[in-house]
Amino acid sequence: MYNSISSQNWLKVYEEIFRRYYSRANLILPNDFYVREIALQPLYSENYVRHLSFSTISELRKTITEKVPRHLYYSSAKYREPANTSMDEKQWMGSDLIFDIDANDIRECIVENGIVTFKFCRTCGYITYNNIKNCPKCSSELLKFEHVDSRCIYRALHYLAKLIDIIENDFDFNMLKASFSGNRGFHLIVELIPPLDKMDPEIRREIVSYIKLDESITTYIKARLLGHNHRKALPLPPKINEGGIRRRIAKELLDMPIDDVTKRYIVGQFGKPNFSDALKMYKVLEHYIGDVMKRISIPIDPKVTVDVTHLVRVPNSINGKTGWIAYNIKKLDISEFSMDHSLLSPEENIKFKIRIDVDLPKLEIADASFSFSRGEEIVLEYVYASYLVFKGVATLINVKS
Ligand SMILES: [Zn+2]
Question: Looking at the whole model, is its pTM more than 0.85?
Answer without folding.
Answer: yes
